[in-house]
Amino acid sequence: MSTTSTGIEGICLIVIPVADQDRSIEFYESIGFEKRTDIPFGERYRWVEVYPPSGQAGIALAPPPPGRDVVATQTGITLTTADIESTHAALAERGADVDPEVARMGDPVPPMFWFRDPDGHSLMVVESAR
After folding, report:
1. pLDDT in tens, 88-100
2. Please, which residues bridge with residue 115 across strands?
3. Can you list the positions of beta strands (E) in 1-130?
4. Which domains does the chain have, with CATH numbers?
5. Are 126 and 78 in contact (CB under 8 A)?
């Protein structure tokens, strides 16, 4: 694996603040993610990581910093699927807040849609090249 001149090798986690870690774990597991880490840290916190089944980069579901509220945001997280239509339908069937339809903008932009987690954070799903 090559590295940048600073030694950075890749992305392993994206941290998003969540109001209720158990609710978020339940949501991400319901859409097919695996909880790989759930450990206490500090005096009153938990460190939770969820990953797509074959993914090496995960999402850490962390409480917000003290004195701050969770604010819904566009996370910039982009997930891939081989079949955008079936993934869109599966997420909708599981109760995820998905866009009403798959967006098709034409080449070179792949078919895509957004969904929101229980805190309102938006994530994108794109169809991978076949």
Report:
1. 999 999 999 999 9
2. 98, 123
3. 13-17, 34-41, 45-51, 58-62, 74-81, 97-98, 112-116, 122-127
4. 13-127 (3.10.180.10)
5. yes
Angle, CA 89 vertex, CA 88 and CA 93 arms, to 5°: 120
* CA distances for 102 relative to 5, 98, 122, angstroms: 39, 9, 15
Note if the pTM is more than 0.85.
yes
The 10 Å Cβ neighbour count of residue 126 is 18
Partners of 123 in the β-ladder: 115
Task: Tell me the pLDDT tens digit for each residue of 54-64.
Answer: 889 999 999 99
Start-to-end Cα distance in the chain? 24
